[in-house]
Amino acid sequence: MFNMNSRQILYIVELFGTFACTWPSDPNSSKKQIIFRNVRWLFAMLNLTLLMISLTLAIYYFRRDVFILMKSISEMTSVIEAILDLILCRLNNDQLQVLVGKVKTFIEVANEHEIKAMERYMDRYKQFLSITASAIIICTILFSLTPFLSAQELPLDGWLPFSIESPGIYCIIYINHVYCIYLMAFCISIDFMIVILFSYSAAKLNILKEKLRHVNDFDVLVSCIKEHQEIIE
Is 183:47 a contact under the CB 8 Å cutoff? Predict the structure, then answer.
């Protein structure tokens, strides 16, 4: 990500957000695509909710084991955060759709100077977010492989009121855990999205500042004022 341009970063963030069901829908989506997206969102919410119930039971069941209790609480906070991310992105889908659409349009039509203006702001956060994303991905993989690397049966510390000795049941629970782990990890796309939106707004303001320096006509000034209002809305 260190050497990626704005188009590549936006594409990767969109992939992460699409998997996590936090990326705003495409306004040109067909009816089937909208239905499929809604089904994926419900599926993600169902899996996260089931995992949260399991972790809630673990908090009660292992209340005397401080180590497992703290792990369960920590994992539960991540699940709750992912659930809130999905809900908030769903509720604000229309606004995010408009904002992301503006960024995509800007990247497509902007000249080299304007693109560099945006990338200058993105570069301020690129290193930190790249390291953070790499660490999260590594942790995600390690969490997923926990049953193969330790004596722990499942990646997370949930408690279930039934046996998981059956291979079929174990596989279902394991897939649920791994899917939720990746959902929680890929919710980092929201942070990247915010950085992109801030960088876009900052770049637009910087470009507008350059325009204002060369204003010599009232109509141009009015146009700049309108553009400024549009940016800050």
Answer: yes
Note whether residue 1 is domain-resident.
Answer: no
Q: How many domains does the chain have?
A: 1
Question: How much is the pLDDT for 176?
Answer: 93
Q: Which two tokens mark 196?
A: 């992109």
* CA gap 16, 187 in Å, rounded: 7
pLDDT for position 125: 77
Q: What is the pLDDT of residue 220?
A: 65
Point out the residues of the chain with pLDDT beneath 50: none
Range of the domain at 78: 6-232
CB 207, CB 117: distance < 8 Å = yes
What residues have CB less than 8 Å from 83, skipping those under 6 apart?
45, 48, 49, 52
Q: How far apart are CA 204 and CA 182, in angstroms?
A: 34
